[in-house]
Specification:
Order of helices and strands of chain A: HHHHHHHHHH
CATH topology of the largest domain in chain A: Tetracycline Repressor, domain 2
Distance between the termini of chain A: 61 Å
CATH class of the largest domain in chain A: Mainly Alpha
Helix content of chain A: 55-70%
Number of strands of chain A: 0
Shape of chain A: elongated
Strand content of chain A: under 5%
Oligomer: homodimer
Largest sheet of chain A: none
Number of domains of chain A: 2
DNA sequence: GTCTATAACCTGATAGAC
DNA sequence: GTCTATCAGGTTATAGAC
């Protein structure tokens, strides 16, 4: 909170700059938590990747658990707020669905770590650290769009909650499981910009086709 | 390997019965690995759930890693062999796809742990412990069905590999993320037989609609 | 703000008795 | 086959110097 004279210094080994160091720790922690999860994550690894010593983690955060909580909050709250601002409820269902999917895919593609991290959190800690109501907000928007679409006769007769889950799964599985299936695209990097765009297009087409009423 | 006089004794605290104890350890390990992953899994927890002491794990398996490998093999090889026996390549694409999905969903629903475990393995260890070619076998079958369906004009114009990933994701996401989304079905158990059947039906409808050509 | 110890604890793995 | 120690190594978290 000191009036820092160094305006912006995002690079590694930023020297003595509280905000920069804290941000670096959060980024490194996100990376580590995304492949290890809370328990298996090593504070040593986070520190090494940040370029400072373990001590700094405890200087800026109460403990590993608190750091984890802050990383999760940061990862979830921002994207969700942005989606809420799209005001999808004011658009016709099929358009709202496409926009939702496109935006959600874009958010997740920007930081593929997040998808993995949220999976790990669900599996390992039963979602204990999720900010309350975030998940409900996400699925609430989707189920509403789907229910509206059915009522208006543009979507086929489907169960909104199950379908919402299937839609989110379609958006996220590619990212979370990419280490699982990289052999399918021998050579190509699955998280490259081009491949992520390809995934987004295919996912959107799959979702739209899966939901729209045949006529 | 001693000629055991006790034919079958699957219950807990089976006493001195090598095969029973070993099987119990494998089951408990699957459970533990499915929520913790290799690194975060505790041999103590596996032993406790089995009803014997940690020592037994090292009596029957070289180390934690070897136990993990055996659990993964057991989980993957069996289901895949069974799917291969369906001889889907001899059926028309849309029928083959539905049968694949139905069978795969059934397999995964029987042991929801497996879905979580494979996810964790992909995220945490980059699939290092997968039996070589298992994944390729699974996705190979799916992409072939999809390519055939496009060639025959029954499936829409889609990218087979991406769509294969989306299909698997649709089957598996519900299971792997169920702790994430249980609030959506307040009260109901998401892994109950009825709910799993509901999921299977919705997933199959979603997949078929997402793939079939509108006409 | 950042570092170098170091305390206190946990966990994988083994030795040896029964 | 199964158990009771027990060791060696690793990990979180803190104390105290700079």
């Amino acid at each position: 909170m000191t009036t820092s004279h160094k305006a912006k210094q995002t690079r590694l080994s930023a020297g003595r700059d509280a905000e920069a160091t804290k941000a670096q720790i959060l980024d490194a922690a996100e990376q580590e938590f995304a492949i290890a999860g809370l328990t298996a994550a090593r504070t040593e690894a986070i520190a090494a990747q940040t370029g400072v010593t373990k001590t700094m983690i405890y200087y800026y955060f109460k403990d590993k658990e608190a750091l984890y909580q802050e990383v999760i909050n940061r990862a979830l709250i921002n994207p969700l707020n942005q989606i809420a601002q799209l005001q999808l409820e004011k658009q016709p269902p099929s358009q709202a669905l496409e926009q939702f999917a496109r935006f959600f895919l874009q958010q997740m593609s920007q930081r593929p770590n997040i998808a993995s991290m949220l999976f790990l959190e669900a599996i390992q800690n039963q979602g204990k650290y999720y900010p309350k109501a975030s998940i409900e907000q996400l699925y609430g928007m989707l189920t509403k769009i789907l229910a509206d679409g059915i009522a208006q006769g543009v979507f086929r007769s489907l169960e909104p909650r199950h379908t919402a889950v299937n839609i989110v799964g379609t958006c996220v599985f590619y990212l979370a499981a990419h280490e699982n299936i990289k052999h399918l695209w021998k050579g190509k990097r699955m998280l490259s910009k081009a491949m992520l765009e390809e995934h987004a297009e295919e996912a959107i087409n799959f979702i739209k086709a899966g939901v729209l009423l045949n006529q």
